[in-house]
Amino acid sequence: MLCMRKIYAVGISPSPDLISCKAVELIEKAPVVLIYDTDFPFELEEIIKNKRVIKLKPGFKDPNVIEENIRTLKSIDADWGVFLEIGDPSIRNPLFYHILGGSEDFEIEVIPSISSVTAVFSRLGIHVRHFCMLGSEEEDLLNNLIDKCDLFVIVNIHKEHAGIFKRLKEHGYDVTFIENCCNEKEKITHEYTGSTYWIIAIAKKDLPERTL
Q: Which residues cross the membrane (predicted)?
């Protein structure tokens, strides 16, 4: 009997126009396609047309949801599949942490793509030498880095952690939000609306040049 052993974490970029040939090839060959049980910043119909699709729930740290995801995967009668991730799946590894909770029951191979972070830089016309990236929940890390890093990229933004942006502004950072980057519903604003999960914030501040 077949059972799921290997999952390709396939980056489908922030927009269907930017999906790599490798990603398209794997999706076409895959016996099963795994996706989030949630909305996406663009329509998936063309990408997963005529495919067997199974939805998994983002569990974050909820052990019950993670266990349900693992049971679902183990019940699939295919020995491999692809998990579709917006942007590049190597950044913060959503499949490993949010879906599987760090479980090592499955072999995971990452198929890289255009990162949502670099896409945001391009859309905002930012040329980057260095930056600090963190989740909106990582307030302690921000406190250690604030006024030391001139450019923050904030991802995994949730309403309950929106206070992080007030703190950045209090320290003189200019904060820009970009929703649904590179898609029809793209929106660039200086205020957090909380209207979608597909949002990245860029916080910039001019700092004095440092000499080593």
A: none
pLDDT in tens, 45-98: 889 999 999 999 887 778 899 999 999 999 999 999 999 998 888 887 778 888
> Which single residue is written with the structure tokens 């006024």?
147
Query: Which residue ranges in the chain fall short of pLDDT 50?
Result: 211-212
CATH number at 117-204: 3.30.950.10
Nearest to 156 by CA among 199, 123, 186: 199
> Can you spell out the DSSP letters for 152-167?
EEEES--GGGTHHHHH
Amino acid occupying residue 123: R
Q: Name the residue ranges covered by the structural domains of the chain.
A: 6-113, 117-204
Helix or strand or coil: residue 160?
Answer: helix
Contact 27, 82 (CB under 8 A): yes
The CATH T-level fold of domain 6-113 is: Cobalt-precorrin-4 Transmethylase; domain 1 (3.40.1010)
